[in-house]
Design brief:
ND/Mrp_TM, membrane, mainly alpha, NADP
Length: 521
Amino acid sequence: MDFSATIASQLNAGTIVPEGIVIITLMIILIGDLIVGRSSKTWIPYAAIAGLLSSIVALCLTWDLPNPVGFLGAFNSDNLSIVFRGIIALSTVVTILMSVRYVEQTGTSLAEFIAIMLTATLGGMFLCGANELVMIFISLEMLSISSYLMTGYMKRDPRSNEAALKYLLIGASSSAIFLYGMSLLYGLSGGETTLDKIAVNITHLNGGQSLGIAVALVFIIAGIAFKISAVPFHQWTPDVYEGSPTPVVAFLSVGSKAAGFALAIRLLVTAFASVTQEWHLIFTALAILSMVLGNVVALAQTSMKRMLAYSSIGQAGFVMIGLTAGTDAGYSSMVFYLLIYLFMNLGAFTGVILFALRTGTDQISEYAGLYQKDPLLTLGLSLCLLSLGGIPPLAGFFGKIYLFWAGWQAELYGLVILALVTSVVSIYYYIRVVKMMVVKEPQEMSESVKNYPEIRWNLPGMRPLQVGLVLSVIATSLAGILSNPLFNLANESVTSTPILQSAIVNTRISQGEIPPNLPLQ
């Protein structure tokens, strides 16, 4: 009896109740589709959404767990991981809403698509709390392989096949590089796999400074940079975004990116605490390259999906300012920005899907005069694009203000000024699309809009798309007005996470802001 009680306390399985709910939902969908067959498409999306919302409720109930570490230290359900897991689950809910009509119109199985997406969600959620090398790699591969499958899901579309092949080849290379970095960490730490034990062991290795640690750091950052599509590891992004099914692109741009940033925070802050200044310097360079290339190249794009691809590269550069700052405000602004980025980016992709379903194109020039035929789509897409550009009083404006202010307080003056300049550049290409939709005269209307079909929301799968668009627009608008409660939530998740607090104190000690013998409160 004592033995089983000890095992139960060490496993602490309550930490993964939200993931358990997603696993049960996944099994219900697979078994239900097997038993019912093609007619299951009428209830499967709603079952998946119900399961994900239940998982989000379970995440809320696990806030401030007294003992958040489970599975012998392999999983950490601290408040920071709860917020990131919530972002991933919420992004999947909105993505499922926008994918019902899209997948049905292609004639492929909706149940299989949702099952693969839930598997990717599961991998992302486990990755956000993974505290051990084996669990990190398995979760990362679970997310990556599911993403490859979704990217090539439209088997009859050669562009989808090409995107999947490019994503698979580059992704497999980045996984190999990342794994090599982890194997170096394992060896340098004397055979430890838990992150906090690795941190302790490599600190004693030449005072934490060695060639092996430097090589491991570079390899691991290369793997993370691929996940968040940071320059120069972004080559896959434009082609994959253009060729993949649009709902998959929407998920990759939010869910996969959030998981990548969660991994970056946990792995770098814990295992590489002894070389904090070095990885801050590397991420400063990645942020500069991503902001400049992402926003400048987006100016020349003629396809909405490619424009949003380069936009997402630029947005990753903005988020990296918070990571480079390494302060409470920096990490909080990162979490807050990813939370609002979820709604404004998924709202933009919902608009792109709606337009593509009705016209069969995603060329920016074809949006000319859209407001005369579809005011709701024009309004929703305009608000989401303006929010991405950082126009007040929308959510994106406050997200950028928090990020830039955190960078300024951390004395990253050059980085913040560059971010402001590239943010102004980004406003140009977002407003260009809005102008195309709103300002054009009737005689300048594009052929696609002239032949625009009658708007019918009662078609199968169209109502979820409408709900997704309206929800995203409301959230993007209200998150700007109610930014303070959301930022307080992000700030609480950071200040109540011990690994971040100890990392912030160590950074301040290394910079001479506080004496090293000061007792921690």
